[in-house]
Amino acid sequence: MLRINSKKISMQFIKLATLFLWHGLMMSLCTSPAYAGEQPYYAVDAYQTPGAVYRIEDRQPGVFFRRRSGSISSIAICNEQLYFCSANDRRIYQIIEKRERVVFEHKTYIRDIAIDPNGNFYFSEASGAKGDGRIYKLNPRVNELRPDRRFSISSDSRKKPVQVQLKTVDGFWAGDFTFDAQGNLYLSTGNRTPAFIYKVPRQKDGRYGSPKKIYRDTKGAIKGITIPNIQFNTRQDFIYYADWSRVVYRLNIRNLGRSVAFSGNVAKSRNPHLSDIAFDIRSQRRN
Question: Into how many domains does the chain fold?
């Protein structure tokens, strides 16, 4: 006669049920609202020549634009319009029908570019630890730039650009910056370790307050910080940044929890250097 060990069957059932519950929990976490339907973003490797811009969707990179010559270290995108610069160049380029044209030329090297939620274009100049940095605002807004015109530094920025004093950012700033939906400014130290992120609050008069350190990474660099666009129903609780190697991190601003958004060698080079990432800013505001 076949004998059934009820105790053994009960233990196996409990183990199987526990396994299913654990699997369900992991699936729930992986598809939580914070990550589900993540907006595609764009990345560049500063050491790649000729430079290319990659579009990353569902952790899969694909070539979005490639130059004929020259590198790309920083990018900004607004309403599907691509702008870029190289850290060893004094010009900002715009891509129109896969052709690049110069839309601004500065007196010294341009380190980073970014667009705020209102469509205002900014660039930075910085020398690392050799002197204070600056951030300039350009005119007109990106939506108002005609195909036959160029940007110019706004009159306010000519008189008084945003000053980034090294004494307020632990003695080093390579020019990396971005904005959130409220217009607050964020700075990162760039290609150095330890690395920091600072929040610079935008005041009621439009000026910026003092930088406040909000995050520290003791093991890697923090390059190319950016914040997802609120128009895509993405909660603005996350900062994305590149580690000056092959990883893009997603940092929760509220609890400082960090996760890997992407890891890979987009340029398939021997010495990868992810230097900037950007989300498409869908700006239609005029204030």
Answer: 1
DSSP letters spanning the chain: -----HHHHHHHHHHHHHHHHHHHHHHHHHTSTTTTTPPPEEEEETT-SS-EEEEEETTEEEEEEE-SSS---EEEEETTEEEEE-TT-SEEEEEETTEEEEEEE-SS---EEEE-TT--EEEEE--BTSS-EEEEEEES-GGG--TT---EE-HHHHHSPEEE-GGGTTT-B-SEEEE-TT--EEEE-BSSSSEEEEEEPBPTTS-B---EEEEEESSS-BEEEE---GGGT--TTEEEEE-SSSEEEEEETTT--EEEEEES-TT--SS--EEEEE-EE------
pTM: 0.85
Q: Work out the pLDDT band at 230, boundaries 50, 70, 90.
A: low
Which single residue is written with the structure tokens 């980073």?
A: 112
Answer whether residue 146 is part of any domain.
yes
**Residue 254 falls inside a structural domain:** yes
**Residue 15 belongs to some domain of the structure:** no
Contact 238, 252 (CB under 8 A): yes
pLDDT tens digits, residue range 53-109? 999 999 999 999 999 999 999 999 999 999 999 998 999 999 998 899 999 999 999
Whether the CB-CB separation of 134 and 109 falls below 8 Å is answered with: no
Residue 36 domain flag: no
Question: Over the stretch 125-151, which tens digit does the pLDDT of each residue have?
Answer: 999 999 999 999 999 999 999 999 999
Enclosing domain of residue 55: 41-281
Note the pLDDT of residue 282: 77
The CATH number of the domain where 249 resides is what? 2.120.10.30
